[in-house]
Amino acid sequence: MAEHLASIFGTEKDRVNCPFYFKIGACRHGDRCSRLHTRPTVSPTLLLSNMYHRPDMITPGVEPQGQPLDPRKIQEHFEDFYEDIFEELSKFGEIENLNVCDNLADHMIGNVYVQFKEEDHAAATLQALQGRFYSGRPIIADFSPVTDFREATCRQYEENDCNRGGYCNFMHVKMISRELRRKLFGKYHRHRGSRSRSRSLSPHHRRDYDRPDRRDYRDSRERDRSGRRSHRRYDSDGPRRRSRSPIREGSEERRARIEQWNREREERQS
Fold first, then answer.
1. Cβ atoms of 169 and 29 closer than 8 Å
2. Is 116:94 a contact under the CB 8 Å cutoff?
3. CB within 8 A of 2, min separation 6: which ones?
């Protein structure tokens, strides 16, 4: 029986736990859902709910005053936001994925998912974001059960063939340019390559391969993107990185742990 329950956990056959919350960390029914939304106590992934506000929030492609918006301006606005939050969140640890939803439904619009390489980096970020604001709005952050974005994203949207549009229940991940992705995520690859090469150098020729000073990086960012409006609205800086956490668990281990949480909660309630 236990093996059967573990095998159907988080699927449509599971009548106890919500499969949508398990897959995408959000559910259109919210607290009114008839199935459980078991929030993890630790995860490498954080959900920043409704954080991105697109300039055509009311009507896609049209600004609030009713004038049509150039798609290039919309993309530029998004990439400014993406780079801004990447720089801020990467202070706490290495980022593996940073996804922003392009969905329009209330429970998914503007959702930002950041997946760190280490769980303790996500925990440090969550603690630092408590009580903080972005563009005058409070940041609502929590651990997310999502660790495999392949299960969470809409394949039809990636193929430009989703007939549900912005109200699809799976993630419509907004894309950034290849140049920006190389600029943000490429530094991790360069850093790893530098560290591996440094092992072969003699002590006399060894050099420091730590990341550059944040002020230098910000200055270079302003030079690279001169003429583009900055969306930086954070009120404070975060702490330094913490030590490495244990190896992240897989889907089977995660399901077993969530099932254990359910049993412990039932025992406390009985």
1. no
2. yes
3. none
Task: Assess contact for 131 and 111: CB atoms under 8 A.
Answer: no
- Lookup result for tokens 């290495």: 94
Is residue 22 over pLDDT 90?
Answer: no
- For residue 221, the model assigns a pLDDT of 45
pLDDT at 13: 62
End-to-end CA distance of the chain: give it in Å, rounded.
21
pTM attached to this predicted model? 0.68
Nearest to 119 by CA among 94, 139, 137, 99: 94
- β partners of residue 92: none
The amino acid that residue 64 corresponds to is P
Rounded CA-CA distance 195/211 in Å is: 11
What tokens were used for 267? 């025992």
